[in-house]
Amino acid sequence: MTPTPVGMRCPECAKQRTKVSRGTSAYGFGGVPRATFALIAVNVIAFLITLGGGGAATGASGSIINDLGLFGPAVADGEWYRIVTGGFLHAGLFHIGFNMFALYILGTMLEPAIGTPRFVAVYAVSLLAGSFGALLVEPDALTVGASGGVFGLFGLAFLVARGRGLDQVAAQLGVLILINLFFTFSIGNISVGGHLGGLAGGLLAGSLIVAGERGMLGPRRVPAELVALALLGIGSAAGAVLVA
After folding, report:
1. HSE-up (13 A, CA, CB side) for residue 2
2. Does residue 147 have an active-site annotation?
3. Rounded to the nearest 10 degrees, how much is the dihedral formed by the CA atoms of 155, 159, 162, 166?
4. If DSSP codes are grouped into helix, strand and coil, which group holds residue 53?
5. Does residue 26 belong to any structural domain of this protein?
6. Is residue 14 a contact partner of residue 182, using CB atoms and an 8 Å limit?
C-alpha cells in the first residue's frame, strides 16, 4: 500500500493519473496533517525546555520531569494535570526520537484518512488511557513519554485498515504491534501499563470509528463518534485519577 494525501491506496491506484480531490469538509479529511505536525512540535519544544531545566539527554531527570511527569502520589494530592503533561515529556534523545518517528509515520497516514478532529480525539483518548494503565500497574513510578498515544494510533491504524478491507496493511500493522509489545515486556524501564493502556484506548476508539463507517452510528456519525470519544477520554482520565 502507498500513503497518499487521502490515506492508503493500492500501488495500481496510486499510479493512476486521475485527479484526486482532497477533502475540504468541516471534519478535515485529506489535506496536510497539521495536528500531527503540531503534536510533534509540542513534544520537541517540551523536550528542549526539559533540557533547559536541567534534564539530561540520556535519561529521565530534571526539574521539569519531576514537576510534570506522571506520578501517582502527586496525582492523588491533586496534581491531576500530570496525566496529560507526562505524555509530552521524554527521557532522552532515543526516547523522543523513536516516539516522534512513529507519530510522524502513523499521523501522516491516519489524519488525512479519518479527519483531524477524530485523529486528535483518538490521540487524546490513547494518551489518557496510557496514563490510566501506567498508574494502574505502577502508581509509584515516575512515567513520561508519548508512547501511550503512539500505541493507541497503532491500534487505530490496525482497526481502520481492517475495516476498510486493507487486510495486507492490517497484517503488517499487527506484526509491528506484536514486535513493539515484545520490546515492551523484554526491556527494562518501559511502562508496560502505559503501552497496554494506550493500545487498549486506541483499539476502543478505533472500534467506534469503524462502527461509524459501517453505518452503525447513524447519518451524523462523525459528531456521534466525537461525543463517544470524548466520553471515553473522560472515563480514562477519571480512572487515572481514581487509581492514583
Report:
1. 10
2. yes
3. -60
4. coil
5. no
6. no
DSSP 8-state assignment for residue 23: P
Q: How many structural domains comprise the chain?
A: 1
| Mean pLDDT score, 11-25 | 52
- The residue with cell 512513529 is 102
Per-residue confidence (pLDDT) for residue 17, from 0 to 100: 56
Exactly one of 131, 147, 191, 236 is catalytic; which is it? 147
**3-state secondary structure at position 2:** strand
Q: Is 90 a catalytic residue?
A: no
Q: What percent of the chain has pLDDT over 70?
A: 84
Cα separation, 155 vs 200, in Å, equals 8
Annotated catalytic residue within 90, 126, 191, 195: 195
Separation of alpha carbons 90 and 230, rounded Å: 26
CATH number of the structural domain spanning residue 194:
1.20.1540.10
* pLDDT tens digit sequence for 163-181: 999 999 999 999 999 999 9
